[in-house]
Give the backbone structure.
Amino acid sequence: MRIIIAGASALGVDLANNLIVRGHEIIIIERNAEKAQELAERMDCTVINAEATRPEILEKAEIDAAQAVVACTDHDQDNILIGLIARTANVPEIIIKTDTAELMRVAKKLGFRHVVNPSQATSVIIADTLRGLDVIELSTLVRGEVRFTSLIVAEKAAGEKLLELDLPPKTAAIGLYRGSEFILYPENPSLEAGDELLFATITEAEEKIREMFSANEGARMQGNSSNSILL
């Protein structure tokens, strides 16, 4: 798999090393000349010293031939812009890193399915551990075609009752987030625009779910994974 990693942050470098060992073709784009030179000398991958938010640089990295783009610079706005450029290039998998909850929400509303916030995820795990909880990683629960999907409710679905949704086969609503409040499915809340719905489903049903709640009819989204996020 050809993967472009924008930003040689600690996450980007660690990810690159991990993927190189697994035999993937990695292209790192890093704006800092000194860091780019150091990586080029010690890593078995292509390193481009440039600004990844510039479309011509991504074209130089042959983004049209990439199967995935990971935007993990130290600037959330840049990561979202890189994701938008990758989407215009029809890259199948686009992963965006954000460090702030506000811009994570923006990325979700823009329709990006794979948005990660490392500090938030780590803090939750540590907090649960300190409370004596045995945290189960979501990845250990995903087997075969099973997917856990999250999406943002658009205006067209507002007012519908959660338990009355006409969902595809082998799909069930788990609950929803409304701001900081989590509402489980037995409460059968009426949907509001901006709610974040959580579903357990299978791969072949993901597209149908996205069509049901997307703000844009026929909107094209990227890939399929265990952590899906959609406007």
Notes: The chain has a mean pLDDT of 84.
